[in-house]
């Protein structure tokens, strides 16, 4: 770490074509960005936007990728000058500056940034966006990131798809609360973070919290349910345990809830019906059990996807299912549901995926569902236990001709039809 700071200092003093004076208004900013470059090329250069090969020569053009915040896909290219070139640092690729040439965005995706994230970016007083998705950043999340008054302007911190380790600093949320911070989106999924979700997480209101695909352990902290402004909560693919408490009903603005592939257990609390804005409920491959609360069917009118496969849910599929008229994906496979598929499912005119295999269901897949798929000529997927039972030779569920895209038997064998 000291070595990279020395490199940055040496470049500013001896190699920078701008040769700034000690009182230059952009001296600190330029030093921090130079340090950012050296720190994130600890093991190898970036894929794009490295310093010009001719040293002090004039800047030339390079480009990097700008991601769409919802999909993570590249939607356009950002043009800018090489880093550590003669031009003002606001013209370096991936940098966006506001008035008075102060950095308000650093945006690099899939650019092979490597090494630890320098905490000194906290000294960029107008930084609002730090987007470093799909790189190779290592080391821990810097505790000092929100310890400086300048860094409290940061609104979006996107570090998904790196190799960051260690724990999530509880100090972040304390400092954000005490300093009246601006952070709205905290997205650090797909890293190698460990430990528990800090209890302090509820001290500062967020809109989007994405911690999926790490190695987090423990139960959901009670402070999490103080996040009443939360719209996205992605915690899937971690080693989380415990139950989903009734306090989940306090998150009334929640639109997306993902606990897929965790060890969360217990039953679904009926208070989940208070999440009237919920569009996606993902509980795939958890240890949850019991019946589905009627409130899910009667209250969650905005629900688009309901993913409950590979759990231990039981009971019947309620006829109230037909109230979820915005539903597009219904995945109930590999549970312990019994009874029949209710005819009211025909009200789900937007449905394009129906997975009910691996249960104790009987009867027939409603013909109306099949007719609906064909009439709309839309991509569809219907999977049910419509192969002959190995013991009886009779399918558990009858599927009208050409309706099911795959048929399964009680042993879990599935064949495309």
Automatic annotation (TrEMBL):
Gene3D superfamilies, from UniProt? Ribonuclease Inhibitor
Q: Where is the Disease resistance R13L4/SHOC-2-like LRR domain?
A: 246-358
Keywords (alphabetical) are: Leucine-rich repeat, Repeat
Its domain of life reads Eukaryota
Look up keyword Repeat and say if it applies.
yes
Give the coiled coil ranges: none
The answer to whether keyword Cell membrane applies is no
List the Pfam families hit by this protein, alphabetically.
Answer: LRR_1, LRR_14
Q: Which PANTHER family match?
A: OS01G0149700 PROTEIN, PROTEIN TOO MANY MOUTHS-RELATED
Q: What is this protein called?
A: Leucine Rich Repeat
* Organism of this sequence: Seminavis robusta
């Amino acid at each position: 770490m000291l070595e990279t700071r020395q490199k940055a200092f040496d470049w500013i003093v001896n190699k920078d074509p701008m040769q700034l004076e000690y009182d230059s208004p952009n001296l600190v900013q330029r030093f921090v960005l130079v340090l950012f470059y050296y720190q994130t090329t600890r093991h190898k250069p970036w894929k794009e936007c490295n310093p010009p090969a001719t040293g002090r020569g004039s800047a030339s053009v390079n480009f990097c990728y700008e991601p769409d915040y919802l999909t993570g896909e590249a939607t356009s290219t950002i043009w800018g000058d090489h880093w550590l070139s003669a031009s003002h640092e606001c013209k370096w690729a991936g940098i966006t500056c506001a008035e008075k040439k102060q950095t308000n965005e650093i945006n690099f995706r899939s650019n092979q940034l490597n090494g630890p994230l320098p905490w000194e970016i906290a000294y960029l007083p107008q930084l609002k966006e730090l987007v470093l998705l799909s790189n190779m950043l290592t080391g821990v999340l810097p505790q000092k990131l929100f310890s400086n008054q300048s860094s409290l302007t940061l609104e979006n911190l996107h570090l998904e798809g790196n190799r960051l380790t260690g724990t999530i600093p509880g100090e972040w949320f304390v400092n954000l609360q005490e300093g009246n911070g601006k952070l709205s989106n905290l997205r650090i999924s797909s890293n190698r973070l460990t430990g528990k979700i800090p209890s302090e997480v509820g001290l500062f209101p967020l809109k989007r919290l994405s911690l999926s695909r790490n190695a987090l352990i423990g139960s959901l902290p009670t402070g999490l349910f103080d996040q009443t402004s939360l719209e996205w909560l992605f915690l899937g693919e971690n080693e989380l345990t415990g139950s989903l408490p009734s306090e989940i009903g306090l998150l009334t603005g929640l639109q997306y809830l993902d606990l897929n592939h965790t060890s969360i257990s217990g039953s679904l609390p009926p208070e989940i019906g208070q999440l009237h804005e919920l569009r996606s409920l993902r509980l795939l491959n958890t240890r949850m059990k019991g019946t589905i609360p009627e409130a899910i069917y009667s209250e969650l009118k905005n629900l688009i996807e309901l993913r409950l496969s590979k759990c231990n849910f039981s009971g019947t599929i309620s006829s109230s299912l037909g109230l979820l008229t915005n539903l597009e994906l219904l995945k109930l496979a590999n549970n312990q549901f019994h009874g029949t598929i209710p005819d009211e499912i025909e009200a789900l005119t937007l449905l394009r995926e129906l997975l009910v295999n691996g249960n104790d269901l009987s009867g027939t897949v409603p013909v109306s569902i099949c007719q609906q798929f064909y009439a709309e000529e839309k991509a569809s997927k219907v999977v049910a236990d419509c192969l002959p039972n190995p013991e009886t030779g009779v399918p558990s569920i009858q599927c009208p001709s050409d309706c099911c895209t795959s048929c399964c038997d009680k042993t879990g064998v599935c064949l495309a039809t």
